[in-house]
Amino acid sequence: MLAGMSDGFATRLKEWRRRRRMSQLTLGLAANVSARHISFLETGRARPSRGMVLSLAERLAAPPAVRNAMLLGAGFAPIYGSRRWDDAELAPVRAAVDRLLTRHAPYPGFAIDRHWRLVQTNAPASALFGTVGLSSGCDLIAALTPGGALAPMIENIEEVHAYMAARLRTEAAHLGGDAVLEEAAARLTQAAGPPASADGALLPAAAATRLRVGDATLSLFSTVAQFGAADDATLADLRIELLFPADAPSERWLTQAFSALADPPPR
Question: Which of 84, 188, 217, 267 is the most buried (most CB within 10 A)?
């Protein structure tokens, strides 16, 4: 009977320990319990307390949705929510994202969800995406794959596909597997073709995307920001992409094109 009550938790614990490539001893030391106790939890011979479930999930860096599933599997109520982006409780968060993106102008910035759907954009990003019909809710992965709206604008599209494939695989692994991201990574890997030989030369400090806009080519690199200690699945999955010019001509073009969209500096 005891084993039946915790089978769901036991299965997930073993699965996530293996995903994180941790031994029972390593996980036990991290959670301040014995390897034997971890073994008993994974076989259903011991039932965890609510605190133990949360402690192990924390050490395994499990996403909020998985932590909820582990709690349910151990017989406890879930504690992590998944609010809509327009939920009233997320108003301070939306304001923070809006401030970050707005202040980033004249450079493009946008927020995407777990599957790279556009959630929010600043004015420069809206202008650039708008030239190919992209707006909030659009799938950025689809737009960048062969035949997508953005793909023809990118001069080094194979390099971008290779970078995106690696990033999607990393994001899927962090989530413990995601069919959408894994399938997209496979398609992008195939589109990128074999890796180019570096011939012993150093790689650039930051991978840049070369985006054609009219007669100009913008060289842009990105930084990625996310919320720390997010206890909501929506926030945990949100990524904020801030694009920066990688050379002086790109900086001049962005400044001239979008300076009117930038906020004045604070006094």
Answer: 188
Confidence tier at 201 by pLDDT (50, 70, 90): low
At residue 18, what are phi and psi to the nearest 5 degrees?
Answer: -70, -40
Tell me how far apart the alpha carbons of residues 6 and 56 are, in angstroms, rounded to a whole number. 15
143 C-beta neighbours (distance < 10 Å), count:
19
Tokens of 2: 């005891």
Q: Quote the DSSP letter at residue 205.
A: S
Q: Coil, strand or helix: which one is 46?
A: coil
Q: CA–CA separation, 21 vs 43, rounded Å?
A: 18
The pTM of this model reads 0.82
Q: For position 259, what pLDDT does the model report?
A: 81
Cβ atoms of residues 176 and 66 within 8 Å: yes
